[in-house]
Amino acid sequence: xxxxxxxxxxxxxxxxxxxxxxxxxxxxxxxxxxxxxxxxxxxxxxxxxxxxxxxxxxxxxxxxxxxxxxxxxxxxxxxxxxxxxxxxxxxxxxxxxxxxxxxxxxxxxxxxxxxxxxxxxxxxxxxxxxxxxxxxxxxxxxxxxxxxxxxxxxxxxxxxxxxxxxxxxxxxxxxxxxxxxxxxxxxxxxxxxxxxxxxxxxxxxxxxxxxxxxxxxxxxxxxxxxxxxxxxxxxxxxxxxxxxxxxxxxxxxxxxxxx
Amino acid sequence: xxxxxxxxxxxxxxxxxxxxxxxxxxxxxxxxxxxxxxxxxxxxxxxxxxxxxxxxxxxxxxxxxxxxxxxxxxxxxxxxxxxxxxxxxxxxxxxxxxxxxxxxxxxxxxxxxxxxxxxxxxxxxxxxxxxxxxxxxxxxxxxxxxxxxxxxxxxxxxxxxxxxxxxxxxxxxxxxxxxxxxxxxxxxxxxxxxxxxxxxxxxxxxxxxxxxxxxxxxxxxxxxxxxxx
Lengths: 259, 229
What we know:
The complex is a heterodimer.
Chain A: E1 23-32, E2 35-45, E3 50-54, H1 61-68, E4 76-81, E5 84-85, H2 90-96, E6 97-100, H3 112-122, H4 127-140, H5 156-168, E7 174-178, H6 186-201, E8 205-209, H7 213-219, E9 222-227, E10 230-236, E11 239-241, E12 253-254, E13 257-258
Parallel strand pairs in A: 3-8, 3-9, 6-7, 7-8
Antiparallel strand pairs in A: 1-2, 1-4, 2-11, 4-5, 9-10, 12-13
Chain B: H1 3-24, H2 26-47, H3 51-82, H4 86-92, H5 97-127, H6 135-160, H7 166-177, H8 179-193, H9 201-227
Helix pairs in contact in B: 1-5, 2-3, 2-5, 3-4, 3-5, 3-6, 3-8, 5-6, 5-9, 6-7, 6-8, 6-9, 8-9
């Protein structure tokens, strides 16, 4: 992998031990047409940890990630991201959380570079910086040679690589990865593993949902297993069952800014 | 970067992205234009060869064709987002939702402006109406009509894009709301084409402008909620 710069959100003011957890849920539930995709999960994830989210199909992994990304609202319970109530302040959550979903979310008639350039603008980069950041990301994900080709002609694996490129041009504090290895070849999977390691080293909290239990558990600090919309088990470090976190704060100090 | 400048940058990026997608996916844009031109032609057949009757009905028929073409345009601009889950990603970017709305509405208005700009001379030829010196106020009506329709259409397309029956729901919801716009645009165009003997075209254009402002404010204020799942 070429030289890769990892960009992160401004760090929270505070010292280790006084920082809020990256994710704190209390009895978090989400119903879809009366069926509970998540049926009351209380979970705490420490900041800067990499946590594997495991479980069978329909366990609630994707729903939990989408709730953490503020893509959907909880039906019941509370959810705080970096100490901020995600229901009351989804706009603050969106500044700190980046989500890799099942859908790769590209624009078919735009080229790979145009898709990434668009993402850089959305993530707040200036024009010149954005161009450089996008090109560096393209080199990292191995799509430099097809940068000017439209996404419409890309294979599933190339689309996935480009979606991972979008993560590289973001500045996350919390990264939510839903099946990041899916559709990728062996080299692509190794790239994802390497990047997760880099994000971890940069202090980004990473939640990885995957069916590849051994692969993700091996690189994670801890694991949380969901089953039937409930938290079945937690193990390792950095993740706890139950609301052991401080209560969500309405306002928080972020390095260099006050929210 | 100030908040306003950032929002403008985001809106322009979204509009540019939509414009590139439209231009590269020529098939869809061309089909819309062809459909709207066909509507004009069929209305002409339905009314028969009476030149005076056609010229009288021309403003109404022109605007109906623009509205039908506009329905397809605003729906397609949101369909681009629905492909491959891009709409959810768009909603998750750390940007002001009003900027997203502004970008989508700008793209919609630009596409409708092109549509209207091509349909006006087409209607002139088909219905035998002399546009002549009336083209400036007529173009003003098209610009104001395009903005107003895109303002409402963007909001409703955002609301219906995730629904299964979106093809039926969008016109059902949108057409009653754009009825005042259609009325004002037809009246303004009729007055302009008749040489504006009563000096009423200005009032209808003012009504169109007021409709645009109200719908843009309401659309910008509600679009963020419409994006929520």
